[in-house]
Write a structure and sequence with these properties.
Elements lengths: L2 H14 L9 H8 L3 H13 L3 E3 L6 E3 L1 H44 L16
Helix pairs in contact: 2-3
Length: 125
Amino acid sequence: MSKQPIDRLTILFGFFCRPGVTSAGVSEIAKHFAIDKGKVSRMLNSCFDEGYLEKDPSTGRYELGAKVALPGLIFLTARAKSANREGRKLLNVGRGLGAWADLFKDVIVKGGKPETTGTDGEDAA
């Protein structure tokens, strides 16, 4: 298998992943990469036929299709779930640190005594 078609597809998908690019036409892509319109058209149509691109029939412009978008959504969902779990862990650590901060404020800043209890529940101080 030739590496050249895969390189072209990688470049093509990279074009659609640039900020602000939601769709593009054959001429626009051909001009951007200085590639013959016929080659670009064949690449786009091949990607469309396989479901990697969608084509607006009224404008003839292409955009990324479900076969490309779905793995990205799955990845982002997994990352969000992981970040949510980590966020909850940090929140619990923060709550624990908050208790230490309150103790520090009461004892060091205000000059009070820490509350300590003995084994019988009576104040040890």
